[in-house]
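#onboarding

Welcome to the new folks! Below is a worked example of what a typical request in this channel looks like: someone posts a single protein sequence, and someone else replies with the predicted structure as tokens. Don't worry about understanding the tokens yet, we'll cover that in week two.

Example request:
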Amino acid sequence: MCAIAHTTMSEPTTTLERIAHTVREERRRQQMDQRTLALVANVAVRSVSRIENAQATVRLDVLLRVISALGLRLDVQPPGPA
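Example response:
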């Protein structure tokens, strides 16, 4: 689960969209462009763009490097009761 503390024009609905939104907003909050984040995370700029655009083609290790570079963490939890 990826929690979003604030809203934008359209609320992210899928897990990929929530991750994309959180990464983009945190990068902007830290006043980084995609190139700078890619350098800090040691990934390609294209990978940062794919993450921020909720594309499912990013490897997990790349996603984790980007998240870590921003000082974020990814929590995986079982679903709550139905």
